[in-house]
Specification:
Helix content: over 70%
Number of helices: 4
Structural class: mainly alpha
Number of domains: 1
Radius of gyration: 16 Å
Distance between the termini: 36 Å
Order of helices and strands: HHHH
Shape: elongated
Number of strands: 0
Length: about 90
């Protein structure tokens, strides 16, 4: 759900912006997977104090953060490339 808008935007970006995004995704996706894997499936007992949310909430949060950071990187790279041309 969060990747579809990024994929559509990346279809129309220059190759250098795509390569920058790919470098970001190469380290951000594994970190997101590790983050989601560390969250317990159900928060009970001592995990409730450490993680006050469930794994599906963590997956949604990781997707949202990935989409926002990706969009910010794409806009920043596009803006800086446009400023360099002007």
């Amino acid at each position: 759900m969060f990747v579809l808008p990024i994929a559509i935007i990346l279809a129309f970006t220059p190759r250098n912006i795509f390569n920058s995004w790919l470098k970001l995704a190469a380290w951000m996706v594994p970190l997101s997977i590790i983050f989601v894997a560390l969250i317990p499936i159900n928060s009970s007992g001592m995990y409730l104090a450490l993680f006050p949310f469930y794994r599906d909430d963590a997956a949604r949060l990781a997707g949202e953060v990935f989409a926002v950071v990706s969009l910010a990187l794409i806009i920043w790279k596009w803006w800086s490339a446009r400023a360099r041309r002007a």
